[in-house]
Amino acid sequence: MGKLEQYDTVAGRKGLGERWNVYRVRRRLRHTEWLVVPYMMIAVVAYVLLKTPLLYVPVLAAIAVGTVVGLRRIPPRTGVRMILVYENGLLFVHTNAYPVTLLWEDVEASRQVYEQSDVKFRSGGIESTTKYGHLTIWPSDGKPPIVLMHVLRQSELASTIEEEIRPRLFESLNAALDANGEVPVGPVAVTRAGVLLPAADKDRPPVLLDWSQLKETRISPTSDVLLRFQRQAGAPKGPSSFVVSVPNAAVFRDFIEETRGLAE
After folding, report:
1. Sheet arrangement for strand 207-210
2. String of b and e for 179-190 (b: at least 16 CB within 10 Å)?
3. pLDDT band at 249 (very low <50, low <70, confident <90, very high)
4. Tens digit of each residue's pLDDT (9 = 90 or more) over 114-159
5. Global pTM?
6. C-alpha distances in angstroms, 96 versus 4, 149, 151, 172?
7. Looking at residue 14, what is its pLDDT?
8. Torsion of CA 197, 200, 202, 207, to 10 degrees
């Protein structure tokens, strides 16, 4: 029985059902891989010139290290090294530890953040590129969040998680709106009539801007929701935009758009 089949057995005992996908964690070396290039060149040249059998080891080592670094696929020494997605939840494979399972119903929220973490050298200057970030998963049982980094196809994994928990999150947001008349998130609160914003003076009540004054809702590169308003004549003075930091930003943005659509 292979490793994946063993994990499937564990998943079956936990009621996770059929396996959908496997995502592996790989550590990237960034700029340090360039240090291997001169080492490889010196080893190969020395081998060709001297033809000494003792140099077999450094030559083979240089080729092996160069190949691994070239592929940029080095497994992490500790932490989560594999995530298996099943129809009913997730299974996390830890280094030297028993796999941990998490049902979809036990996932409270998730958040993917991209980081500027790699640099490409080109003629005319240096270009910074977005290569990878981190994905945080919050269990609903109050346990510490699971933070994943260097996951291959991380965006695909994040999309799968959000798609599975989206219906429950929407139901929770709408239930809160029905029960309390508003859903506070960060500095703002969503109501049936519009968005409540904090007043310029902290001693004054929040300001309600109706849906006609909301001009844009979009997700920023840091996975925040940006709300941009155009205040009508006579409206109280205040900021024209707000940044709301919230897990599952796409769900919250769609909730705002859906609430506005129902009101209109």
Report:
1. 182-185, 188-191, 194-197, 207-210
2. eeebbebeebbb
3. confident
4. 765 444 545 445 454 545 578 999 998 888 899 998 888 888 999 9
5. 0.72
6. 16, 18, 19, 37
7. 93
8. -30
List all residues 6 or more positions away from 226 whose beta carbon is below 8 Å from its beta carbon: 216, 217, 218, 219, 220, 241, 242, 243, 244
Q: What angle do CA 127, 129, 131 make, to 5 degrees?
A: 155
Distances in whole angstroms, Cα of residue 215 to Cα of each of 140, 191, 212, 228: 34, 16, 7, 6
In the structure encoding, which two tokens stand for residue 152, read together?
């291959």
In angstroms, how far is CA 76 from the centroid of its own chain? 18
Distance between first and last Cα of the chain: 58
Distance of CA 138 to the CA centre of its chain: 12
Q: How does strand 225-229 pair with strand 188-191?
A: unpaired
Q: Which two tokens stand for residue 112?
A: 């993917």
Handedness of CA 64, 67, 71, 72 (dihedral sign): positive
